[in-house]
Every structure is written in C-alpha cells, then in structure tokens.
Amino acid sequence: MMFLDTGYIEFCEGAFSNSIVPYMSAKNLGRYFDDTLSIEGSFGYPFLSSSIKFLITKNNFEFEMWEHSCLYSQKYSSISHEITLSNWPPILNEPVAIQFKLSLVFFDTFSGLIDTIDISGTTSCIIRNRDITFEDLIREKEYNYFIEKSKNCPDTIKMVSLSIQHLDKLPDELLLFTNLESLDLFYNCINEDQFYKISHLANLQYLSLRSNYLTQVPKEIFNLTELKVLDLSRNQIKNLPHQIVNLSKLEELYLNENILCEFPEDVFKLNSLKILNLSNNNFKRIPLKITTLPNLKELHLYEM
User: What is the helix (H) or strand (E) element at residue 134, kind and residue range?
Assistant: First the structure.
C-alpha cells in the first residue's frame, strides 16, 4: 500500500534499555512515502546533542545516530538488528509498534576509536495526514494525557494543563479532579456556562484563564478561596465584581490587557497581594491608595 501524502509521525513512547543512550524525545518526526518509513529526530542534555535516524522498509532497516559535544563527536551505525513491526504497511491514523534489538558500531571522529554497543527498545508512531502540524500533535498529546489521567486516580493529580486546546467547553472529566492545585486554561474560548466544572476545586491555588475572550469574570471563581494566583489577562473584561474580596489569599492578580474603565477599588481589600498587573486597560484615574497595600511588591500600570 502506498501513501503519496507525506505525514508527520508522533512518538507515543520510546526508550532504550541501555542507559548509555538517552531517551528519545517527543520532537522526533517522520515521514512515510513510497513504502518507506523515515524517522528523524533529536534529543540531548546540556552540552550534549544527538540526532537519530530510522529508515524502514518491508525488507530493509537502517539506523544511524550522531552524538555531538564540545569534547567529541561520535557516529553510531547498525551492523546487525532484529526488528518487529505491527501494522505494516502503515494505515493512516493507526499506530505502528516498533520493537528492536540493535548492535551498533561507533566511530569517534576525534580519536579514531571504534567500539560496539548493544541496545534494545520499543517505540510506536502514528501516521498522520500532511495537514497536521507538530503543534497540533503536542496539543492532542496533552489532551489525551489529561483524559488518561481522569481514568486513573484523578484525585491524586495536583496539576492539569489544557492550554492552547481551542476548547469552547470544559471536558466533563475535569469534575473528577478533586484535589487540583494548578489549572492552566490559557488560550481557549470557553463558554461562560462551563465554569461550574471548576467550582468544586476547593484546593486550587493557581488558575489561568488568560486569552479566553471572556467579557466578565466567571462567578464560580469566587468560590475558589484557596487561590493564590489568578490570571485573567488578555480578555475583554469590563469590570471586576465585588466578590473578588472572597479571594483573601490571593497573592498575584493579572488583569492586564482587558477593557477595564473604572479602577477596581476592591483590590484594596486583598491584603495578601504581592503582584498586581493592571496594565493596558482604559482607566481614567488611578487612586493613590494603591500604594497602601501592605504586601505589594510589584505594581504594573503601564500603557502601550
């Protein structure tokens, strides 16, 4: 079967059994064209970078890896291998599992030394349509990770990120996360009738609703009395309700880049505030009283 379209490949997981070789990162991408699966990527640590390449056809397998540092450069090549593939040839949107055992020979370009190592491992990939971008894959992976966590002891999870998911509805699974302390919903477009799904998060300390096209502050937020950081920046909020005083433990409040006209004087009752960002709004005046907040360390009021 031949795919004429070139698609991206997402690595679901990948690990070498030999500790000498680092884990493959999610930045690996591949292409499937003319019955050839080509996987290339990079990974590394500080002061060490590596590149990797798989080339797989029905009857052939090639593997190369380079390591580079300020002290040396090494090239690894496969001299023998055992490889098992599932679902070959690949089918669009279906996973391909790859299991391998490799004997590698490496050549040190500085010293000229040659040695061999044996590695084994597994990985899997999914053939995607060519119009899928790497950023799309990252978003999908994060969302799927969230769904998977909701099925496995969600009450033990402290942090969830659903940023840049283009959500207009919050997933119902969010109701299962009873002990969340951090929730990032940056850059979505969540409907106002969806925020009841976070009102039960009694332990929540960090909440970001930045860039969600909000025209008002969701009332459910004022039930989250453990909040220490609230980011409502880059929305279209016109006023800050009096109920903000319920958040007496708030230490950081970000309301920059909204359309506030009247200065929200209720912030003067938030005595725990350390950072307050009200930049780029439509204030006509700023009360001098703003300087009386007892714990305030940073105040941002600039206009651009």
Answer: helix 134-150
User: Which residue bears the tokens 């969806």?
Assistant: 194
Check if the beta carbon of residue 293 is closer than 8 Å to that of residue 271. yes
Stretch 161-189: mean pLDDT: 93
Q: Based on C-alpha coordinates, what's the Rg of the chain?
A: 26
Contact 191, 168 (CB under 8 A): yes
| Nearest-angstrom CA–CA distance, 183 and 277 | 20
Q: Do the Cβ atoms of 79 and 65 come closer than 8 Å?
A: no
Which of 214, 216, 165, 159 lies closest to 186 in space, CA to CA?
165
pLDDT in tens, 191-250: 999 999 999 999 999 999 999 999 999 999 999 999 999 999 999 999 999 999 999 999
148 Cβ contact partners less than 8 Å away, ≥ 6 residues apart: none
218: preceding bond cis by omega (within 30 degrees): no
Whole-structure pTM value? 0.66
What DSSP line would sit under 172-223, residue for residue?
Answer: GGGGG-TT-SEEE--S----GGGGGGGTT-TT--EEE--SS--SS--GGGGG
More confident call, 142 vs 5: 142
